[in-house]
Structure formats: structure tokens, C-alpha cells
Amino acid sequence: MSDMAKYYKAKYLVVWEEGSHHILENGFLEVTGGKITGYRKELPEGAEYEDFGNAAIIPGFVNLHTHPSEVFSIKSYIEDCGNPNFFESTLMDYPFPSLGKRGAELQTALNLIELVKSGCTTSLIYGGPYSRLEAETAGKMGLRAYVGAGIRAGDRMEAENIWHSPDGHSVTYNFDEKSGFERIREAEELVRDYDGAFDGRIHILLGPTQSMTCTPAMLQETRKVADKLGVGITVHVAEDLAEFEGCVRLHGKTPVELLYDTGCLGEDVVLAHCVFISGHSQVFIKDNRDMKLLGKTKSNVAHSPTPFIRVGTNLESFGKYAENGVNMGIGTDTFPSDMVQEMRLAAFMAKSQEKTTYKTRGRDIFNAATVNGAKALGRADLGRLCAGAMADFSVVDLSTIEMTPSRDVVKTLIYSGTRHSISRVYVEGKCIVKDGMVCGFDEKSLSEELQEICEAAWKELRSDDGRTMDEIYPMSFPRL
After folding, report:
1. 53-80 mean pLDDT
2. Which tens digits make up the pLDDT trace of 9-39?
3. Which residues form the domain of 124?
4. Is the separation of the CB atoms in 157 and 136 below 8 Å?
5. pLDDT surpasses 60 at 1
6. 195 & 286 share domain
7. Which of helix, strand or coil describes residue 45?
8. pLDDT at 92
9. Any idea what the CATH number is for the domain that residue 86 is in?
10. How far is CA 188 from CA 69, 247, 410, 457, in A?
11. Quick check: is 464 in a domain?
12. CATH number at residue 55
């Protein structure tokens, strides 16, 4: 990469100075060799620059929770469904169509395209059966990713549930701890093969799939291996009321307490969701024990409002977690994977829960999507525009209807923008998205192929009792 400085001009730059983002008007961003070397109000005499015009340059977003290889597998049918015997959950008793390896490849490519188009220059990919595929795809696309190595007390491909319902109202568990320790060994192999790959843009985390898909011994071993290898941990926890209840019945502890007692809380742990903790209005334990543990350990939470709003619930609340010392980040998790939309929903739902507009503001959400996400990954060189940071940034077009007028570009983006407001995205100074399109990919052909695979899989799906797709997941309106 060239050691010559490049300069980029925009109407606004969201730069980092003295521990906070600041707005610089009509400034220049200086990039050298994939890193930011500074920002200026004026250029050296005779220096050439690229002028983005009526635009804003903002830090690349750090997305703390994504599922590229499976995100579209439940799209367009799981909505409006749920078992009332399990608090309207779909984690049990709902079969999902298999899209096969090609389906995983298409989903991974399309979802990473969707993520980067919404300004995500770094994404935590949860991982699982296709962790290697996800790491390879992100690396070849020029993206930055932290990929989870899936760990569960069962088969590697996750073809069989560990906890399920044989009758639609009771729960049984099938923990295969021997297989679980094999998954941990496989996770070590993934770390050795991919951590630091693709010029340091790809990293690996250990990823217990859920608090209730691992035994306590597996969680303890995960912590030991993570410490030995020097990598972080990510785990789904407190994402479902049935999970909370099952954990208390099985272990006599809340899911958060289980993670604490097995060493899986802390500054190097990203907790996906962490919604149903003690004290939540829908949870039967009303004290503050979980929040105290989260704050005490300075754990990180990847807040993804969409999948919870979609089923009528929410985290309670963004501001409360932050006040208790929890590092709050943002993850897109599901579909649509639009980081800008997710930020807006996080802001709206926080205000709704907190009954005030002041406790959680746009600046708090912007920090969550940038510097807080970087902190969760142990990176002081991401999520900010300052000397020494990686040249990961996005260009927001201020000439669109949704971004006009813009006095405070952060507020305008969060409260009015969409991923379509972002025209360019750069990772380490390389342009990955130009004119709103990811360079080198035919989105239309990839989407058409995925549609064909999905339609075939929907026709084949049958439940154990013989019900078809339309019977399990009713259409919004009857077919003719």
C-alpha cells in the first residue's frame, strides 16, 4: 500500500479528539498506508484531495452481532409466529428448512454485502457450522471481522436441537458433553488457522452458542482455552424467557449467574442480547442480581432491538445497563441487517422504555455503534477518526431526501437515515462500497439464486407430525 498521504474532503467530519467524537466542518481526512494520520482544516499547499462535496465522513460502524450464513434462513415466514406455551418462542418446536451449503454461501455473501452497505466496516460474526466459510468470505471481500468458533454440546452442524419439546408444552435436554469438548478442540483449530488471517483483518472468538447449549464444565473449559489462546468469547445469553426459566430449573441460577460462575463474563466477553435478566418486567426473579454482575465484570452487551421488538418485547433499558457499567454495543443479528435502522430502533425503544427523551440520546447510540463496539473487541484503533486509527470510514450523502436538512449529522443519520444514505465505505483506506454498491458483486444474481433454493426448501419442509410449510407458518393472506 502506498505511503503517500491521501486527503478526503467533506462538509462534515465526525472526528475523535480528547476522548469524544467532535464535528469538524469543511475538513480534510488524511490517510496514509491504510491508517488515518490526521485531520485538518486546511491542506498543505499544492496537496491534491478527493472532494465528496455535500457529504459527511463518519467512522466505520462496529457491529457486535451478526449471523451471515443463516440470517435469511427464517426470513418471510417466522414472523408473527411463536408457541404460547414457551412465551411465544420459536426456539423449540418449530422446524426450519435446510438450505444446504450453497444456501449458506449465498446468505453469507449477501448478508456481508448488506452489512457493509450500512456502514459496518467491522462485524462480529457469530459463527457455527460455517465459521470457516464466513471467515473466508469476509476476508476475500476486504472486510474486517471477528468470527465465532461455535461450541455446543452436540453435533457440529447443529442439525439436532439440544433442548426441544416432544409435546409442545414440556422441555427436554440432550447435552452430549463429549461432543461439546470436541467442539472446543475444533474451536482451537479455527483460532490457529484464521486468527490474524487476511492481513490481520480476520480474528476468531470462542462462541458457545447459548448459555443453555453448553454444560457448566464446557463453559469453564471455554474460559481456560480463551485465556490460553488470548482470544475473546461471545455467547448468546438471556435471549429467551424459556431459556431463563430452564436455566433456573436446571441449575438453580439465572443464565447470567451461570456465565459468571463459569468465568464467562468480563471485558473480553460479548454477550449477545442479554435481555431477560433478573428484574426484567417479564422475568419472575425481581431483584437486581444480574445487572450487578454485568456491571461488576464490565461485560459487553450486543444490543439488537429488531428480533425483540418483532415479538413484542425489549431490553429494559439501554440507559440502565450503561449506568450500571455495562459497555453497550449494537448488533444487527437478524434481517434486515441495516445498522442505521438498528441504531434508530435502539434509540426509539430506549426512550419508550425509559419514558424520557434525555436518558438515551443519539450520541449514546452513535458511541455504541462505534467506540463502544471497538472497546468490546479490545480495539482502540477502530470506531473513531483520529491519528493512528485504521482508515475504516463511511461517506454519508447529505443530498438525499432523508438526510436533508442536516444541522447535526449524527442526529439526522440516526433519526432519519437508512443504509441507502451511505454512498461509500472504506476499510483500511480501500473503497469497498462505491455509489451504494459493493464493488465486484452482482447482488441481483446472488439474490435470484437464493430465492430459488429457498422456494425448493419450503416445498420440502415437513414437521414431525407431517404438517407442511403453510400449516406450520400460515401466510398473511390465503393462497388462491
Report:
1. 98
2. 999 999 999 999 999 999 999 999 999 999 9
3. 61-376
4. no
5. no
6. yes
7. coil
8. 80
9. 3.20.20.140
10. 21, 27, 40, 33
11. no
12. 2.30.40.10
Q: Give the whole-angstrom CA distance, residue 73 versus residue 91.
A: 14
Together in a domain, 52 and 70: no
Percent of the chain with pLDDT over 90: 96
Write the CA distances from 137 to 112, 130, 239, 444, integer angstroms.
Answer: 8, 11, 28, 18
Question: Scanning the structure block, which residue is given the C-alpha cell 464493488?
Answer: 439
CA angle 311, 316, 318 (to 5 degrees): 110
422 residue type, one letter: I
Does residue 300 belong to any structural domain of this protein?
Answer: yes
Q: Determine the residue type at 156.
A: R
Q: Which three cell numbers stand for residue 364?
A: 449514546
CA 448 to mean position of chain CA atoms:
25
- The answer to whether residues 304 and 161 belong to one domain is yes
Q: Show which of 376, 411, 427 is a domain's final residue.
A: 376
Enter the C-alpha cell of residue 415. Answer: 433519526
Going by C-alpha positions, the residue among 66, 7, 13, 95 that lies closest to residue 384 is: 13
- 50 with 75, same domain: the answer is no
Cα of 339 vs its chain's centroid, Å: 9
Query: Is 234 in contact with 227 (CB distance < 8 Å)?
Result: no
Statement to judge: residues 95 and 142 lie in one domain? yes
Determine if residue 314 is left, alpha or beta; phi over 0 gives left, psi from -120 to 50 gives alpha, anything else beta. beta
Positions of E strands within 283-339: 300-303, 327-330
Q: Are 352 and 318 in contact (CB under 8 A)?
A: no
Contact residues for 134 (Cβ-Cβ < 8 A; gap 6+): 68, 69, 108, 125, 127, 145, 147
Whether residue 303 is found in the same domain as residue 430: no
Strand order in the sheet with 120-125: 61-66, 120-125, 144-151, 202-208, 233-237, 269-273, 300-303, 327-330
> Bridge partners of 205?
148
Q: Number of structural domains, the chain?
A: 2
pTM: 0.98
Nearest CA among 270, 219, 279, 216 for reference residue 244: 279
410 with 366: CB under 8 angstroms?
A: yes
Assess whether 67 and 53 both reside in one domain.
Answer: no
* 112, 188: one domain: yes
Q: Does residue 170 lie within any of the structural domains?
A: yes
- Determine the pLDDT at residue 2: 64
DSSP 47-81: ---EE--SEEEEEPEEEEEE-TTTTTTTTTTSTT-
Per-residue 3-state assignment (H helix, E strand, C coil) for 88-102: CECCCCCCCCCCHHH
Please report whether residue 466 resides in a domain: no
Indicate the length of the chain as a whole number: 480
Q: What is the pLDDT, as a whole number, of residue 3?
A: 80
Q: Rounded CA gap, 41 and 46, in Å?
A: 15
